[in-house]
Amino acid sequence: MVSRSVVVLVAVAIVMLVVGTGIGYGIAGTRVATITATATLFTPVTRTTTVRETETMFTPIPTTITLFTPVTKITTVTVTVAATPTPTVRVVEAVLRQVVQVGSWRLAVVDVKEVSYVKTLKFGVWSYYKAPEGMKIVIATLKVENVGMEIRSPFGFAELSLPLLVTATNRSYGKAYTYELESIYEITKDIEREAAEYRELDVLTKLAPGSYVEGDVMFLIPQGEKPAKLVLEYWPSPFEPKTVVVVKLS
Description:
By secondary structure, the chain is mainly β. It folds into 2 domains: 45 residues, no CATH class; 160 residues, Immunoglobulin-like (Sandwich), CATH 2.60.40. Helices cover 12% and strands 33% of the residues. The chain contains 2 helices and 13 strands; from the N terminus they run αβββββββββαββββ. The chain has a 5-stranded mixed beta sheet with strand order 1-13-12-7-8, with no helix packed on it. A 4-stranded antiparallel beta sheet has the order 2-3-6-11, with no helix packed on it. Strand 2 and strand 3 form a beta hairpin. The longest helix has 25 residues. It is globular and about 80 Å long.
């Protein structure tokens, strides 16, 4: 395509050529002159250019990704454990009123008796009880002294257990309570005379070093059975031998 400035320059050249010829003609006289002027103009040429735009697209390529499959590995571990001998049981035998020491406690079964009636003193008033039909009452009196250096409860955790009464038939009976007995509301002179005072052992008490507690533990056994022994345990630690105290009653 020809620029406009080129066209203008060519036109101005033609005009100046014509004017110059006219002036020359006037000076020289009348003369017919044929002037052939050749003007070469740039013919606009239209050119079609095809521009190809190439757009490169990413074609997704299927890709296989291998993931690590969790594998459970079983490892056999051999552990050698040193066998610890099971603590043995130490049995201590005694008789009535014999003092036995286990750990920080010195104890003795002071008395054991079979009774038909018991009485307890509450708020200055005596209450009377008897055994249920076919049963009888056994009262064991215990004395426990603290010979250690600390204030402790003799029947607390990892201390002395409450005694079990074992009869001649080898049956065991645990501690009985007054609510298991039958209350007596008509008190005769015989009942008043035969009733044994029941002073329940305080199992929640704490004892200072050198002090002691004394009280009764009551049992209910069948009429036809005979008390044979009282059994207590002392086991302060599972890593130490258990001490079983057996007090023979006859």
